[in-house]
Amino acid sequence: MIPTPSTQPGPAGAADLVADPLRFGVGARVTVAVMSDRYAEVILGALAGVATDGLVVDTGDVSTYVGGHEADLLRYLTDLVDAVAATGEHAAVTLHLSRGCPGEVVCELPGGAGPRAVALPPGRRTGRSGAAEWALYPLADDVRAGVEPDHMRDIEAAIDLARTTGTFRGSEHFVTRLEGDVGALVETVVGAWARVGRGVQHVTSHVTVSLNSPTRSRG
Amino acid sequence: MIPTPSTQPGPAGAADLVADPLRFGVGARVTVAVMSDRYAEVILGALAGVATDGLVVDTGDVSTYVGGHEADLLRYLTDLVDAVAATGEHAAVTLHLSRGCPGEVVCELPGGAGPRAVALPPGRRTGRSGAAEWALYPLADDVRAGVEPDHMRDIEAAIDLARTTGTFRGSEHFVTRLEGDVGALVETVVGAWARVGRGVQHVTSHVTVSLNSPTRSRG
């Protein structure tokens, strides 16, 4: 819950920990809320067509945990949001991404074991659009390990990516508003999270995506 | 979006900034997703009975922003979640709380202006229950202002409160699971966020609450 690495120096084998996405705690929690009486059928139908190759998936009553490599998460989350959008039903999809803090109340990975640098393929474009509110947190867990956060660098990396993907629409209280192809939305969020993670071990991101909104259609 | 206070020392009048909830950036973004064909009617009906006294409310297509004193937010969010639960419809409510970082891409409040200490009244009990997944982020924006984060202290304060309210159920990937009366859930989340904020200027929290879940009823 609360990001709290131990403060010991990195363990022997830290490079192996960083290289393994599951041991580095790379994953997402996803909540799909479909605003229809047929919500169970719609969600199950959308999920049935989405490949989970390379990922660990554990579905609960509040969210589904998905763990694995960032590139697999990018593909899975793009396919999932696209599949929900394709149903035509109004839906809210909440994504919570985390990397660099496996474990639970106390991170099992010491500060300073990371960061982890990965290259991501470009995101897919789906032809379906949505709107999102996005928060990104580079967490300064490793201050005591001598890694000082550089938030300006992190902001610039994230905003650059949102401008490159064409999704950036502006800032609101506590969040950045994104709009566009749902593939571009997911690429922005996953890409910025991974990019900021090149310099910071523990990075989380929370985004709420609205699909097929009647408010927007009327607007 | 990304927490980035300026790094100048606190301004003249910092105490006034801290005392004013809106200038300190105290608020929440709320998304209510009701899984029913009647979602618009259900949401509007639930909202109609919830008093917004003391709060600034701005409804968008992805979420509703609510700004004001922590005690008013506690009351409003308790009443709102209770009203949605009372409809009997399956719903997911996503709450994003923030304090200590007004403004948008770059915080307008310099690191070191806070923290802000407030006393909250006890939360109300509603007689309706739910399950939640909770993340709490004490953000180390003011490292350069000489305020070093103490995550163990923050964890202990948050877990203590979850145990006191009886909502703590355990840890899962990236989140803490809470269950119980929806009033106790909201009291835990708002209370821990405010309590951690006694020692850290910028604190955010994200929680997804599941109401009237058919999965849980069957379980």
Describe this structure in words.
The first copy, chain A, is of the alpha+beta class and 219 residues long. Chain A has one domain (14-218): Alpha-Beta Plaits, CATH 3.30.70. Chain A contains 6 helices and 8 strands. Chain A has an 8-stranded antiparallel beta sheet. In chain A, a hairpin with a 4-residue loop joins strand 2 and strand 3. In chain A, helix 2 (39-48) crosses helix 3 and helix 3 (70-86) runs antiparallel to helix 5. The longest helix of chain A has 17 residues, at 70-86. Chain A is globular and about 50 Å long. The N and C termini of chain A lie far apart (38 Å). Mean pLDDT of chain A is 87; it is low at 2-10. Chains A and B meet through strand 1, strand 4, strand 5, helix 4 and strand 7 of A and strand 1, strand 4, strand 5, helix 5 and strand 7 of B. Chains A, B: Pfam families: Ykof. Chains A, B: It comes from Cellulomonas pakistanensis. Chains A, B: Residues 27-104, 133-216 form the Thiamin/hydroxymethyl pyrimidine-binding YkoF putative domain.
The CATH architecture assignment of chain A turns out to be 2-Layer Sandwich
Q: Point out poorly predicted stretches of chain A.
A: 2-10
Strand content of chain A: 25-35%
Q: Span between N and C termini of chain A?
A: 38 Å
Helix count of chain A, per DSSP?
6
Per the CATH scheme, the topology name of chain A is: Alpha-Beta Plaits
Structural class of chain A: alpha+beta
Average pLDDT rating of chain A: 87
Count of all domains of chain A: 1
User: How would you sum up the major sheet of chain A?
Assistant: 8 strands, antiparallel
- What Rg of chain A do the Cα atoms give? 17 Å
Q: What is the topology, as strand order, of the major beta sheet of chain A?
A: 2-3-1-4-8-5-7-6
What is the C-level CATH assignment of chain A?
Alpha Beta
Helix content of chain A: 25-40%
Pfam families (chains A, B): Ykof
Domain Thiamin/hydroxymethyl pyrimidine-binding YkoF putative (chains A, B): 27-104, 133-216
InterPro entries (chains A, B): MTH1187/YkoF-like, Thiamin/HMP-bd_put_YkoF
Protein name (chains A, B): Thiamin/hydroxymethyl pyrimidine-binding YkoF putative domain-containing protein
